[in-house]
């Protein structure tokens, strides 16, 4: 599962899913759950499109309120942003 965490270190690393070389941005970024291994935008769009859109909107300066289907997102106390269905597990 992919989660959003606030990233304060920006460095080149391999995507946790496809091993592509990426640089996670400062601020909200996508990571493999339970780790600080970043996930590239392409993998995030395939596996968690709502989260990818939310992070992209934040970095574009848009409010998450204007992103489609944001009602499916929920902030889990210890897991960061995730889809509501995934937080039930």
Low-pLDDT segments: 63-68
The total count of helices amounts to: 3
Largest sheet: 2 strands, antiparallel
Helix content: 25-40%
The coarse overall form would be globular
Strand order of the largest sheet: 1-4
Instruction: Please give the number of β-strands.
Output: 6
State which percent range the strand residues make up.
25-35%
Walk me through the structure.
- The chain is of the alpha+beta class.
- It has one domain (2-87).
- The chain has three helices and six strands.
- It has helices spanning 41-47, 49-60, 84-87; strands at 2-7, 12-14, 21-23, 27-32, 73-76, 80-83.
- It has a two-stranded antiparallel ribbon with strand order 1-4. A two-stranded antiparallel sheet has the order 2-3. Strands 5-6 form a two-stranded antiparallel ribbon.
- Residues 63-68 have low confidence and may be disordered.
Please summarize what this structure is.
The chain is 26% helix and 29% strand. A hairpin with a 3-residue loop joins strand 5 (73-76) and strand 6. It starts with a strand and ends with a helix.
SSE layout and pairing:
Layout: E1 2-7, E2 12-14, E3 21-23, E4 27-32, H1 41-47, H2 49-60, E5 73-76, E6 80-83, H3 84-87
Antiparallel strand pairs: 1-4, 2-3, 5-6
Helix pairs in contact: 1-2
Keyword list:
89 residues, alpha+beta, two-stranded antiparallel ribbon, two-stranded antiparallel sheet, 29% strand, globular
């Amino acid at each position: 599962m992919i989660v959003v965490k606030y990233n304060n270190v920006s460095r080149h690393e391999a995507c946790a899913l496809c091993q592509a070389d990426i640089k996670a941005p400062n601020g909200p970024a996508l990571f493999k759950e339970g780790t600080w291994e970043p996930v590239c935008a392409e993998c995030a769009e395939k596996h968690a499109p709502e989260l990818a859109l939310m992070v992209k909107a934040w970095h574009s300066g848009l409010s998450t309120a204007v992103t489609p289907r944001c009602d499916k997102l929920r902030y889990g106390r210890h897991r960061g942003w995730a889809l509501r269905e995934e937080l039930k597990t």
